[in-house]
Amino acid sequence: MRAAYLDSSVVLRVVLGQPDNLAALLPDLEPFTSVLTQVECLRALDRLRFADPSLSDALVDKWAGLARVFGSLAIVQLGPRILSHAAQPLPLPLATLDALHLATAGAVRERRRPDVAFATHDRQLGRAAAAVGFEVVGV
User: Fold this and answer.
1) Of 38, 39, 40, 5, whose CA–CA distance to 22 is shortest?
2) What residues are paired with 3 via a beta bridge?
3) pTM tops 0.90
4) Alpha-carbon span 40 to 78, nearest angstrom
5) 64 phi and psi, to 5 degrees?
6) Alpha carbons 120 and 135: distance in angstroms, whole number
7) Strand bridging mode 117-119 / 74-76
8) pLDDT digits (tens, 9 = 90+) for 44-78
9) Mind listing the pLDDT tens digit for each residue in 115-133?
């Protein structure tokens, strides 16, 4: 079974039931993510709550769905090695949080799984992941 890093865009699209999500691919993967993804996804749901207070009841189900998804993922903590790697120059411009996603996947690839794929719906992050040698899924 192939390992795949899931960024926040992938997790949110699955949990929110948005079109073109990667839910069908997940059973064939060993998915993992960063603790950063948990924070980003929880913040996104909270922003939705403020943007449209009428969604509050529906978001309770989304929070529960998010907890289920994270319960099925291996979660990688952001340690000094990942933080240092994220600070290094990259072949394409990338925002800080995206660089942390990429560095997390890279750390797993270096230590344990050279065949890691990178799943994202973010085009710029997908381009950066491809530029550093990941097979990219989702864009």
Assistant:
1) 5
2) 30
3) yes
4) 14
5) -65, -40
6) 11
7) unpaired
8) 999 988 888 887 788 888 999 999 999 999 999 99
9) 899 999 999 999 999 999 9
